Amino acid sequence: MNWEDGKLFLAVAREGKMLTAARKLGLNQATLSRRLSAFEAELQATLLVRGPSGCVLTDDGEALVTKLERAESAMLEGQALFNSTDTRPSGVVRIGAPDGFGVSYLTPRLSPLLDRYPDLRIELVAIPRSFSLSQREADLAIMVGRPEKGRLIARKLTSYSLGLYASKRYLEHHGVPPSEPPFTGHRVIGYVEDLLFSPSLDYASDYFGGTRAQLGISSAIAQMEAVKAGAGIGVLHDYLAVHEPELVRLASPVETRREYWLAYHESQKELRRLKVVSDYITGLVTRDKGWIVDA
After folding, report:
1. Are residues 124 and 269 both part of a single domain?
2. Which domain holds residue 13?
3. Low-confidence winner among 27-36, 143-152, 165-174 (lowest mean pLDDT)
4. Closest-CA residue to 94 (of 148, 16, 25)
5. How crowded is residue 40: how many other Cβ atoms within 10 Å of its Cβ?
6. pTM of structure
7. Residues of 198-226 as b/e, b for ≥16 C-beta within 10 angstroms?
8. Three-state DSSP state, 206
9. What CATH number is associated with residue 11?
10. How far apart are CA 46 and CA 36, in angstroms?
11. SS3 for 292?
């Protein structure tokens, strides 16, 4: 097996799309596709199923990715032995995270990690969506709730709580809403229902009953900004809202708790750069329990 062809296959597996991988590799898409087809013919195996939305790994493809990544990691460690006395991790780690955690919590705390490991590159994708680790949409993902599917290594980071909030300005103009529905005369802010990326985020009915959100927003951060601006009442993360003096937590019989889990594909477990980043994030959250989140 030609290692150069193996690297091309790894690039497509990680990017999930032939065109994106070709651009990163500096190759023509047709050339890359042709070389991968020849690679599959050489191995007498189908590694990828090509489709309009991207490339999906077959079972044989996943198995080969595992072996190639172990070989890649061993080669990088071998280079470090001969090229330098420094065995610091290097390369790219892409982190997928919900926007609330990724933007407000993780982003301001990445600088010490980068200072400590100058050869490490972090790509933080902090958007409200799920990430396929098997398709290499991210190397490491922060998930809402424990992952139930896939060959993943996962650890619980922490629990966190949510509550019903309004701004001081909103309360001055509209009064304090009742603690239970119906919320007649009050505007509700919530998620865009058909864009919920996790069932655990579907907690609007617990608070609002049959009252539908008049303002639906897909981002937790944007929801908080809307509530701060007096656009309505909404369910917000306590660890975010507590730092906003304009926000008031409202009385409600509903108590909501969710969990953040850190996960990565088991084929990546030998990569030192991934271990460094996952341990760093775990250490941050462990240190900050009781402040931004509950144990």
Report:
1. yes
2. 3-83
3. 143-152
4. 16
5. 18
6. 0.70
7. eeebebbeebbeebebebbbbbbbebbeb
8. helix
9. 1.10.10.10
10. 10
11. coil
